[in-house]
Design brief:
single chain; mainly alpha; 0% strand
Length: 269
């Protein structure tokens, strides 16, 4: 791509080379320029994070010059993990820029304070798919069952990565209301990671309604799905899975055989 963009323009080629080999100097000049104009650069945000300057980072959530600064400030607050920032990050869920909203949602999940649950539930309907994805992840980290009904509605989200993360989050929360919808998600064979997450989630929830659907996956053509199904059956603990799991001890793939053996051991304890 680099060659095709520059082969017909020697001047552009030279400019790209200068930018490539002098990126550190450019970063330095940019930082000095920001300082002279009273602006904040990303390096300053990182410095504030390293110094645990929570109040300064909270102030940057209202920085109007650049959305990337607000976004980085939100992420820094998430890395620090102090719940003193929760209210300010909740306010940032309404930021005009989707990058900031997504970063604020992620940060709230890292801080893991249940004050954020209801505001995050509202953001599950955000118009931007990345915001919805990070919101689902955050709700999974918090693990509050208040989010279950809203998450179940997002199993039909138009964005596949949102659906994948919603399934994963439902498993983390572990509410039995999600069992039947997750069994339904096993049928989305054209969405590999949705199926992967659904198999894992059903094992985490541990409801016997999932036993037969998971037994069916022991014969799936994808060896990794067979392995995951065996592991989830071991976690659920229903003895009816023992005989099907014994057959998997002869699977052509070692990972499936090992998963089946471990599952049988759990069931027979």
């Amino acid at each position: 791509m680099f060659r095709s963009c520059t082969q017909n323009s020697p001047i552009l080629f030279i400019v790209v080379l200068i930018l490539y080999f002098h990126s550190n100097e450019i970063d330095l000049y940019y930082s000095k320029w920001c300082y002279r104009l009273g602006k904040i650069d990303i390096g300053k945000v990182k410095e504030m994070e390293l110094n645990n300057d929570i109040s300064g980072l909270i102030d940057l959530l209202d920085y109007n010059e650049e959305c990337i600064i607000r976004s980085n400030a939100a992420e820094a607050l998430g890395e620090i993990g102090d719940n003193i920032a929760v209210d300010s990050l909740i306010n940032s869920l309404n930021d005009e820029d989707y990058i900031v909203r997504g970063s604020a949602a992620w940060a709230l999940g890292e801080i893991n304070d249940d004050r954020a649950v209801e505001p995050l539930i509202k953001v599950l309907g955000d118009r931007d798919s990345d915001v919805r994805k990070f919101t689902a992840i955050a709700l999974g980290n918090i693990g509050d069952s208040r989010a279950v009904e809203s998450l179940l509605k997002r199993l039909n989200d138009k964005c596949i990565t949102v659906r994948e993360n919603v399934v994963n989050t439902l498993g983390k929360i572990g509410d039995h209301r999600a069992v039947e919808p997750l069994i339904g998600a096993l049928g989305t064979k054209n969405e590999y990671f949705t199926v992967v997450n659904a198999i894992i989630a059903l094992g985490e929830i541990g409801d016997i309604r999932a036993v037969q659907p998971l037994i069916n996956f022991l014969d799936d053509r994808e060896f990794y799905l067979r392995s995951l199904a065996a592991s989830s059956l071991g976690k659920i603990g229903d003895l009816s899975a023992i005989e099907p799991l014994r057959k998997s001890l002869n699977d052509e793939y070692g990972i499936v055989r090992v998963s089946a053996a471990h599952a049988i051991k759990k069931l027979e304890e």
